[in-house]
Design goal:
The complex is a heterodimer.
Chain A lengths: L1 H9 L3 H22 L3 H21 L3 H26 L2 H7 L6 H28 L1 H8 L5 H8 L4 H22 L3 H18 L1
Helix pairs in contact in A: 2-3, 2-6, 3-4, 3-6
Chain B lengths: L5 H21 L3 H25 L4 H31 L13
Helix pairs in contact in B: 1-2, 2-3
The chains are: A mainly alpha, B mainly alpha.
Chain lengths: 201, 102
């Protein structure tokens, strides 16, 4: 009760305040992504930026979209990025550049403290949103749940879903084709030549 | 009507979109360009969700799911191209791709 009167004095409801806070965190994390030097650290900030945007979605009354954002973006697409970075072998450069003296531990601390601090702020905000009855009351009044989305997705938007599935299939085939090592075609040619010579002999 | 005004959501979306756009233009590392593209697509998703919650329609979330699919396909193709580029040029500098014939 004390909290609500406090916010009434400020002229903003807690939902709005929390939205602005997580929006500011998303902007800061995105700026760190753009200005980063190390690929892995930029990726870490990208994850935090996506989490902040997911909290924004939750506060906008779209919990289904927030869950999808975390599962698909932060869970699947970012793992793809990590796999690619592992294939590029950029981790070797990082260990070369790291200082080897006793300050190594401190610099190591500096690397992960930024993203984890933003993530902890987001976590406290989410816990406050779940716990506070005032926020919950405001949230549940204008929620769009997964049922409405599903009815719309498999009703009027059925053709769009089919086209999206074709797009994913095209992405799969293109990814296989482009990432295929060039040696395979050469090996195939060598195999054919071998077969030819074998037939000739 | 949502508690958060639509104009503020659109301001957030446009700020995130311009951050991603600046990243695409400024950075030379192709991996960072792909990450900036992710930020841009995410900003588009914010705009869709905000519009959907302002009019209390589920269409915004449907469009967000389609944008998500697009982002997944785009990242798969882009990272495969990057692997090919790393294999040919031993570098991820986008300026190496300025010549089309090679």
């Amino acid at each position: 009760m004390n909290l609500s009167t406090n916010h009434l004095i400020m002229g903003l409801n807690p939902l709005q305040l929390m939205f602005y806070f997580s929006a500011a965190l998303a902007i800061v994390a995105s700026l760190k992504v753009i200005t980063g030097k190390n690929t892995v650290h930029a990726l870490l900030y990208l994850v935090v930026s996506l989490l902040a945007v997911a909290v924004c979605f939750y506060l906008m009354g779209a919990p289904f979209a927030a869950g999808l954002e975390i599962i698909v973006y932060a869970g699947a697409i970012l793992v793809l990025f990590v796999f690619a970075i592992m294939m590029f072998g950029l981790g070797q450069d990082e260990t070369l550049n790291a200082p080897k003296s006793h300050s190594f531990r401190l610099s190591n601390f500096n690397l992960w403290v930024g993203p984890s601090l933003i993530a902890i702020l987001l976590l406290t905000e989410l816990i406050f949103a779940i716990e506070s009855s005032l926020v919950q009351e405001k949230l549940t009044s204008h929620i769009i749940d997964a049922k409405q989305v599903g009815i719309l997705l498999y009703g009027p938007y059925l053709l769009a879903v089919e086209i999206a599935s074709f797009l994913l299939l095209a992405g799969l085939i293109a990814g296989y084709h482009f990432a295929k090592p060039e040696g395979i075609s050469l090996d195939q040619k060598g195999l054919d030549q071998q077969k030819e010579t074998g037939g000739h002999l | 009507m949502s508690a958060i005004p639509l104009s503020h959501v659109l301001i957030l979306a446009s700020i995130l979109f311009s951050i991603g756009f600046v990243g695409v233009i400024v950075r030379k590392n192709t991996l960072f360009i792909l990450m900036s593209l992710e930020v841009m697509l995410n900003a588009v998703g914010v705009a869709f969700i905000g519009a959907g919650s302002a009019w209390q329609q589920a269409d915004g979330q449907v469009m967000f799911i389609l944008v998500l699919t697009l982002a997944a396909a785009e990242v798969a193709v882009g990272l495969a191209l990057l692997i090919q580029m790393q294999r040919r040029f031993k570098s991820l500098d986008i300026d190496l791709l300025s010549k089309l014939k090679g």
